[in-house]
Design brief:
With about 450 residues, the protein is α/β, with parallel strands linked by helices. The chain folds into two domains: about 250 residues, Rossmann fold (3-Layer(aba) Sandwich), CATH 3.40.50.1100; about 160 residues, Rossmann fold (3-Layer(aba) Sandwich). About 40% of the residues lie in helices and about 15% in strands. The protein has 18 helices and 15 strands. Strands 1-4-5-15-10-11-14 form a seven-stranded mixed sheet, sandwiched between helices. A four-stranded parallel sheet has the order 8-7-6-9, sandwiched between helices. The chain has a two-stranded antiparallel sheet with strand order 2-3. β12 and β13 form a beta hairpin. The protein is globular and about 60 Å long. The N and C termini lie far apart (about 50 Å). It binds pyridoxal-5'-phosphate (PLP).
Length: about 450
């Protein structure tokens, strides 16, 4: 098997799409820390969480034990519309770099929403429908999550209210229209439609918004509107679980050809695509069956892993959500204008945070112009126009492949290509005009965010 010629694209057949998600927490010796009630500092109970989230998703959120969870048939059927996603051997990129490294990428951009987020959106919409809810609320930054969720909600015929970070709402009118086409209502955040929005606007009248702020608004609407729950597109354990479909498909495809990656790379915003891609491989590492290098890539302008604190913090700016133990820059941290909207969150998945704290994963940060140089090179040789977020992973994959060339090593590099960049042409325009800048926060900038991390005994900041 190992010597079989590797095709440009390794496709699985429809019947090979995994029928269960893999829950990496089951194999972790040190489990991710539980969410805490910010009032009592006690772990959130299922009952408390069910005010915010759908019941079945609460179960998944709290499940640290079951290794595999069945994917309901309705979700499997939806997956068949755009999955399995291709695993591509980047022959053209390898040739361009003249590297002995073998490069593979799993491409998640082949659906209308343009990213991997649809994998979790459809699951969350399904459980909301099954519970008999009228609809869901959410936030969206760059717009990929809102788009994915509006597609999923229209499929199951439930309402979808999206709070969109104001700067994206204004800069990406076409994303907004895609969401409306799928029947969602879209409100720029912060808005006057919520108490928390009014409060934030009175404090910062000119703010262009942030993800943390949009989350606060969406949660408020969900908890005060009958028949609604809140859904989140990243960060949560349940989202990593749904995204494990990426890693499971990848592993199944690689196994067909006896390929074992040495390095697995993914961009990290809240950690869902990276967590999903690495989960089955991390499981092997945790069980002592195989070893891999895992690299999380984040923007230098929003360096949660590489410069953040591992502490309990709020998931949102309005401080209405539970506390999560994670690498965080502080819920008040607002990153400088950066074009990778999906990577601008102040925190990180608690599962990935624990794996990183335990030394099972590495992290690195890259600057925006270097990211777009990689994006351009990739687009020109591999054909796909990558999302700025995804291009963070491309950057580091290229860097690792160049190191292989210098060292004469034939390593196998796998990275997650999370989406396409068609709605990011303002960013590409800036890059093409030579107007793109890199802003790296100073320690003093970061301290402002750290000062807002809640202080209580045991929370080391
Ligand atoms: C949202 C998004 C990301 C980052 O989110 P994660 O939860 O960290 O995966 C990366 N790439 C694309 C295309 C996105 O839309």
């Amino acid at each position: 098997m190992a010597n079989k010629e590797i095709p440009y694209k390794i496709y699985l057949s429809e019947c090979e799409i995994p029928k269960q998600w893999y829950n990496v927490r089951a194999d972790m010796k040190n489990k991710p820390a539980p969410l805490l009630n910010p009032g009592t500092l006690q772990p959130m109970t299922a009952e408390e969480l069910s005010v915010v989230f759908c019941d079945e998703l609460v179960k998944q959120e709290l499940d640290n034990d079951n290794r595999y969870i069945d994917i309901p048939e309705e979700i499997q059927n939806f997956y068949k519309m755009y999955r399995p996603s291709p695993l591509v051997r980047a022959y053209c990129l390898e040739k361009k770099l003249q590297t002995p490294a073998k490069i593979y990428y799993k491409f998640e951009g082949n659906n209308t929403s343009g990213s991997h987020k649809l994998n979790s959106a459809i699951a969350q919409a399904y459980y909301a429908k099954k519970q008999g809810l009228k609809g869901v609320t959410t936030e969206t930054g760059a717009g990929q999550w809102g788009t994915a969720l509006s597609m999923a909600c229209s499929y199951f015929d439930i309402d979808c209210k999206v709070y969109m970070v104001k700067v994206s709402y204004e800069q990406k009118p076409f994303r907004r229209e895609v969401m409306r086409t799928y029947g969602a209502s879209v409100t720029p955040s912060p808005s006057m439609t919520t108490e928390v929005g009014k409060k934030i606007l009175s404090l910062h009248p000119n703010t262009t918004g942030s993800l943390g702020c949009a989350i606060s608004e969406a949660v408020e609407v969900a908890t005060t509107t009958e028949g609604y729950r809140y859904v989140l597109g990243s960060v949560l354990n349940q989202v990593l679980l749904h995204q494990s479909i990426i890693g499971l498909e990848t592993k199944a495809a690689l196994d067909k050809y006896g390929i074992k990656p040495d390095i697995i790379i993914g961009c990290a915003g809240g950690g869902s695509n990276l967590g999903g891609l690495i989960s089955p491989f991390m499981g092997e590492k945790l069980r002592g069956e195989a070893d891999y290098r895992f690299i999380a890539v984040e923007p230098a302008s929003c360096p949660s892993f590489t410069r953040g604190k591992f502490a309990y913090d709020f998931c949102d700016t309005g401080m209405v959500c539970p506390l999560s133990k994670m690498y965080t820059l502080g819920s008040g941290f607002i990153p400088s204008a950066n074009h990778a909207g999906g990577l601008r969150y102040h925190g990180m998945s608690s599962t990935l945070s624990q794996l990183y704290a335990d030394g099972l994963m590495e992290a690195t940060s890259v600057e925006q112009t270097a990211v777009f140089e990689a994006a351009e090179l990739f687009a020109r040789v591999e054909g796909i126009l990558p999302a700025p977020e995804s291009s963070h992973a491309i950057r580091v994959a290229i860097d690792e492949a160049v190191k292989c060339k210098e060292a004469g090593e034939e390593k196998t590099i796998l990275f997650g290509l999370t989406g396409t960049g068609y709605f990011d042409m303002v960013a590409y325009e800036k890059f093409n005009n030579g107007e793109m800048t890199d802003y790296i926060p100073t320690d003093a900038d970061l301290q402002v965010g750290f000062d807002g991390i809640p202080k209580f005994p045991g929370n080391m900041v």
